[in-house]
Amino acid sequence: MKVAILYICTGKYNQFFHEFFSSCEKFFLPGIEKDYFVFTDNMNICDINNVYLRYKQCEGFPKDSLFRFEMFLKIKEELKQYDYIFFFNSNSKFLQSILPEEVLPSSTGTGLVGALWPRRHSIFNIPPYYPYERNKKSTAYIPPLKGNYHYYMGGVNGGTSEAFMKMIEICARNIKEDYNNGIIACVHDESHINHYFHLTNPDIVLKNEYCWPEEWPCESMPKMIFRDKIKLDPSFKKKPVSTISRLWRVILRTKKAIGWYI
Q: N or C: which end of the chain has fewer CB within 10 A?
């Protein structure tokens, strides 16, 4: 069995790679052969045999993430040689062993793996408040009152090679179509993943313990976290948000939630 890991780090995100790699080697599918395809602008970041570097110019946000499916397709023939493919955000870090039965889907279902966004405030953990794409002209649009609703993060996903490749081909095509029409979905590539998963439910749905933000309090040790970027590099720190701004955001989210049904 062979597993391909897809990983993007450009600019100041390069500093996350070594911690990700060492923890992934130790805890993610221990004992199973893993190869890493790292898209980076630092071609000296690593010289380990199972790490394959692919040059990626740093284009900033959102392009570095928005067009990642198109970028992955450039190594399509290489990826076909693997049984399973997974993508992880640059600031991912594994803390406990994750075994095959937890994350490897069978080939009899959709063959996909998705991770639910963790939520601390239950009031927003209902479909009307999910940040789905609401523009009906976008290929990422998700209509109300049609099917089961979950909100998946873009930073953790995977599946069988066949299922994953099909997903990224469709998402890449949809993103390009939107972009050519002057549309960028509200949460970029994550909006397109949610659209795809809404139509093609993942066989395995990972919950909080597999994708917990490091800065949030947690009752028990998660299996994987997203590192607090500010801890590693203060330059990631954004300007503080005022109470009035927070209130205004809640009002806008509520307006969008109601408007989804109109």
A: C
